[in-house]
Amino acid sequence: MRVFAAIRPSPQALEHLDSALQEVRDGAGLTLRWGDPEQWHLTLAFHPDLPEGAVPATLEDRRRRRAHLTVGRLSARAPRAPRRRRGEARPPDPSQLVLSRAVHALSVYRGPAWDAEEVELLSSHLGQGRSGGPRHELLGTVPLGG
How many CB atoms lie within 10 A of CB 109? Predict the structure, then answer.
């Protein structure tokens, strides 16, 4: 099964981001498909083929080894740096201009700070969500903290 670990921003942070992206979404029209805000999350780990029977043991193992997670400002240049070092060109993309505007809007976005209390373990069911997107099912949670 397709499983991922994620943290969800606070409702206030999601509302703030949703409002900040409204102008970008309006300008993009149908060129970009946006996920539903109630499914927005930060993916920490992805397991494309986790056996279904492994979920309870995975959750229990993570609960025994509690963690503290701190995320700071991430560099927008980081993902592109390895490609530039290898001399690879960007692949052509007809929606690049629209996507570029969205990337710029997010690069200057500053949302409210929020604390994550737990990590969620979710399964992903492709094509079963609204408008053919994925549907996420909560399998369990692991608390964060000291």
Answer: 12
Please give the Cα distance from 33 to 133 (Å, whole number). 9
What single letter denotes the amino acid at residue 103? V
Give the angle subtended at the CA of 39 by the CAs of 65 and 11, to the nearest 5°.
Answer: 80
Q: What CATH number is associated with residue 116?
A: 3.90.1140.10
Domain that holds residue 130: 3-143
Domain count of the fold of the chain:
1
Alpha carbons 84 and 86: distance in angstroms, whole number? 5
Q: Judging by DSSP bridges, how do beta strands 42-47 and 118-125 pair with one another?
A: unpaired
Q: Could you read off the pLDDT of 45-79 as tens digits, one per residue?
A: 888 888 888 888 878 877 777 665 666 555 555 55
Residue 58 tokens, joined: 């995975």
Residue 42's nearest CA partner among 140, 92, 114, 102 is 114
Q: What is the pLDDT of residue 74?
A: 53
- By CB atoms closer than 10 A (0-12, 13-18, 19+), residue 50 is middle
Q: Does residue 12 contact residue 37 with C-beta atoms inside 8 Å?
A: no
The pTM score is 0.68
